[in-house]
Amino acid sequence: MKIAxxxxxxxxxxxxxxxxEAAGHQTVQLSRRTGVDVQDLVALSKAFAxxxxxxxxxxxxRELPGQRYEDVHVRGTRxxxxxxxxxxxxxLVLMSFLRARPNCGSGYHESKWAAEEIVRASSIxxxxxxAGVVYGSGDHLLDHLSHALYSFxxxxxVGFRDRPVRPIAVEDLARILAAGxxxxxxxxxxxxxxxxxxxxxxxxxxxVAEVLGKRPVFVRLPIVLHRFMAQVxxxxxxxxxxxxxxxxxxxxxxVEPFAGSSGLDAVPDxxxxxxxxxxxxxxxxxxxxxxxxxxxxxxxxxx
Length: 303
Description:
Helices cover 39% and strands 17% of the residues. It has 10 helices and 12 strands. The strands form 4 sheets. Strands 2-1-3-4-5-10 form a 6-stranded parallel beta sheet, sandwiched between helices. The chain has a two-stranded parallel ribbon with strand order 6-9. The protein has a two-stranded parallel sheet with strand order 7-12. Strand 4 (91-97), helix 4 and strand 5 (125-131) form a beta-alpha-beta unit. Helix 1 packs across helix 6, helix 3 runs parallel beside helix 4 and helix 5 (141-151) crosses helix 7. It starts with a strand and ends in an 18-residue tail after the last helix.
């Protein structure tokens, strides 16, 4: 099959392309870097020509000028569906978020939900993947945790209550996304996808710290303080250590999906995630050791 991947040069898109190509499929990796923006309907229509399936993985976790949640997640998804329908694409799989839902006061969550509804209403056989926290080489979780643990002796936890989380390895997620584009069993389904092991957020940080040989002091900070820090970091860092959307995500349970009126379907047994968040998996995903520095600042001129 020939399969187009929006967000194809990103963290999940790259893993999905590797999974599909290893299975003998041809991939077309699309992103702003390759000159195909999901806000450009004409470019999408040309890119989808001759494709059997589209995996829509493009998304953002903070807003920038010209890249608002409404623009990327909602209008962008509508463009993807329109272009796929006009190109005769037979399968469409959407990478969404476990807790995406309407009317919750979060632009990230609400726009992801709107994207799900657009895909489910399309004329193409579709699969919506509602993924939890994803980790692996090139992610934000291990990358930012690692740099933070090298940079600061104190680690601020979000809120005064610890939340459960089931981290999912990007390889497991990519396998399910690939099945969404190729396996007829997953046509017209909405699948919540989380890892096989339940931890607390503090437990996740502690496990990464142990692998790094670090012993940070954990301090619980109010969510409002984390929001303030996220606002500052979004304005000062190229890739913020934490964004406003991530604060909202981390302040909620990350094991229970939102179903909505469409309901949820079960992941087939042979596709269920198996990789535990163990030291070996953590080591595979860690970046080069180092602190946050001037290179991470949006206004920096250092090399």
